[in-house]
Amino acid sequence: MSISVERIWWRPLDREEKIWVTIALIWCLGTFFMMPVWHVIAKQNTPNESYKVSVDDFEKLVTAFNEKYKVGVDENSGLPIVHPPVGSDVYLAGTGIWQWSSILELEVGKQYRLHLSSIKGGGAEAWQHGFSIVSSKFNANLMMIPGYDNVLTVTPTEAGEYGLICNEFCGIGHHLMAGKIIVKG
Amino acid sequence: MDEQKALSWQALYDNMWGIFALGIIVPTLIYTVWGLIEITTLPQMDVSKAMEALKPAQVEQAVPAAAMAPEAAPQAPAH
User: Fold this and answer.
1) What are the Cα distances from residue B21, in Å, to A70, B13, B18, B26, B28?
2) Predicted pLDDT at A121
């Protein structure tokens, strides 16, 4: 047995319902317009520069970049520490063996163009990774997708060491993807 | 019961299959089709230009001492 009341739902709303619908509508519009407003006020600028690039080509770029600007090797991870010139194009990738391609060493107040993607590295497949900075002050959150180059223009504002994690579940070694960005004063 | 005739959009909302169709069509257009257009129109990265910038710095070719002018040739250390 079902209980239903025969009625016409498009009858004019009563006063209380109108008030609630109006409040909900204002709230919706407010949160909607906060997105573009916050984009400008808080400088939370979503990058909108992307390119198609083959996984192999991006791997060549990463390798050439690491070889040219390598200044040392991180003792813990064994990853190359790379110090690119100010204002240059920086190539960073997540690899198929769940590592970062390098540890970047950047300078405070200088602008860089970070190219983010995913490479095979070690002969494995190129997985979809995520680029996420671990900091209570700064935030950056992008996907690193095989076959695509997402460009993030950054200017570090404070010296320090910032953790880097993968925020897309990329397989059995996802938890191993703890990297680092060093910002020098 | 109110005998007022429902408007056409109201009739659509009252139709279970109409709502179902809208629920499929609207996200397909706004998310899937828009996303596919975005992906297919992405420009190709200029890899050769990028590689050019990453070429190792040019190292000056070493000139054999014999080919140097006598005054420029390295002097043997005096013993």
Assistant:
1) 56, 11, 5, 8, 11
2) 80
